[in-house]
């Protein structure tokens, strides 16, 4: 098995020792490994696009942002693996990927493949989620210095800082052609959010559809109710939260420069055209993963 390992030294504050253990185990299991350390944003995508032979599998070593950039450079027919060493690692939770480097390497070589269908946001692929409104303001408001030093606490700080803004922007959404309104929206492929919290019990990453969560009531009290419901995995039970399956979503806003987030990183601004892709990507998961 030929494996290309893409390591982001900035993810999770840097995990070089874990990378070496991961690569050593891949080689012990008989894999031929080609390693690349990214130099900055989008480098993973550019590097992979310029690579003549990506091998049998490309493994992203980093967080959800790194996996997103690898996904955007992945050649057709090549499997995608993840060794989650980032801050939140939502995809790792979703696919029950091990945190120990030796076990993560075993998943790549000895695990199984499942089909996960990415979606495109304004032409760029994402695997887990994208969002507008509060969700996107929080991602865009994260202080990178604090994130490097204190990890997830940077998100908590940003969440507190953005609460007062909720409800000030109004979005017009078309979900498979159906017109709807909201004050925030999250379009998710998987169930998890912000780490191990369950955002949607309706979502299924193995199904070629996204789950669209629309936050349709205004006011900070409603937002706080949603955040508490998230802690208990009951977001879809909150009165004012709509949850719909879709293939295609369009989002507009009259305000200028309304940001979008995708897979936990800033992803431009509205309008947003989101469409589930026609072909899945094969992802390496543990042999015991329930598919
Ligand atoms: N050498 C580098 N220096 C700085 N940033 C980089 C480098 N290589 C890649 N990046 C950028 O780092 C960003 C953050 O990485 P990533 O999202 O994987 O880690 P994280 O934020 O710690 O984890 P998570 O998204 O799971 O919370 C990526 O979007 C990528 O553009």
TrEMBL record:
The keyword Nucleotide-binding applies. GO terms for cellular component: plasma membrane. SMART domains: DAGKc. PROSITE patterns: DAGK (PS50146). Gene3D superfamilies: 2.60.200.40, Probable inorganic polyphosphate/atp-NAD kinase, domain 1. The keyword ATP-binding applies. One of its GO terms (molecular function) is ATP binding. Residues 1-125 form the DAGKc domain. Keywords: ATP-binding, Kinase, Nucleotide-binding, Transferase. PANTHER family: LIPID KINASE YEGS, SPHINGOSINE KINASE. This is DAGKc domain-containing protein.
């Amino acid at each position: 098995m030929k494996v290309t390992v893409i390591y982001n030294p900035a993810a999770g504050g840097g995990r070089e020792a874990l990378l070496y253990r991961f690569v050593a185990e891949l080689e012990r299991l008989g894999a031929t490994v080609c390693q690349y350390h990214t130099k900055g944003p989008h480098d993973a995508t550019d590097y992979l696009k310029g690579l003549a032979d990506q091998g049998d599998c490309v493994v992203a070593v980093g967080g959800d942002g790194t996996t997103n950039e690898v996904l955007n450079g992945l050649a057709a027919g090549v499997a995608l693996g993840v060794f989650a060493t980032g801050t939140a690692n939502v995809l790792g939770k979703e696919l029950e990927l091990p945190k120990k480097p030796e076990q993560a390497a075993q998943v790549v070589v000895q695990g199984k493949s499942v089909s996960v269908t990415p979606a495109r946001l304004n032409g760029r692929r994402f695997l887990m989620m994208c969002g507008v409104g509060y969700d996107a303001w929080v991602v865009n408001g994260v202080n990178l210095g604090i994130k490097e030093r204190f990890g997830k606490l940077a998100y908590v700080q940003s969440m507190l800082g953005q609460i007062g803004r909720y409800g000030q922007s109004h979005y017009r959404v078309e979900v498979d052609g159906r017109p709807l309104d909201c004050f925030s929206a999250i379009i998710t492929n998987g169930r998890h959010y912000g780490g191990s919290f369950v955002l949607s019990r309706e979502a299924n990453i193995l199904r070629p559809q996204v789950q669209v969560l629309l936050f349709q009531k205004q006011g900070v009290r409603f937002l706080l109710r949603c955040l508490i419901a998230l802690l208990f995995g009951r977001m879809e039970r909150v009165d004012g939260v709509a949850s719909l399956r879709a293939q295609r979503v369009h989002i507009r806003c009259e305000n200028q420069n309304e940001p979008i987030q995708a897979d936990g990183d800033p992803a431009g601004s509205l309008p947003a055209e989101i469409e589930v892709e026609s072909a899945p990507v094969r992802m390496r998961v543990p042999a015991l993963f329930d598919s």
